[in-house]
Write a structure and sequence with these properties.
This protein is α/β, with parallel strands linked by helices. Helices cover about 40% and strands about 25% of the residues.
Length: about 70
């Protein structure tokens, strides 16, 4: 409550998502007062973790929505 936040819905096969992920992770790191929620839509944990590892991105801010609801 009373805190700035960004909600980003993304998927590993989404080109624009892949381009903006590093920027959003960096934004979260540089601006800890802004909560950045990165919500993967419809993919399983292994696919998401493989992508993050391959791209050198942390998994701390990642949430999963396997049902894409």
């Amino acid at each position: 409550r009373g805190r700035l936040f960004v909600i980003n819905l993304w998927a590993t096969l989404c080109g624009p998502c892949r381009r903006e992920m590093p920027m959003l992770v960096d934004t979260a790191r540089v601006n800890p007062e802004v909560l950045v929620l990165l919500i993967n839509q419809g993919e399983d944990l292994q696919r998401v973790l493989s992508y993050l590892t391959a791209e050198g991105l942390p998994d701390a801010s990642i949430l999963l929505d396997p049902g894409a609801t």
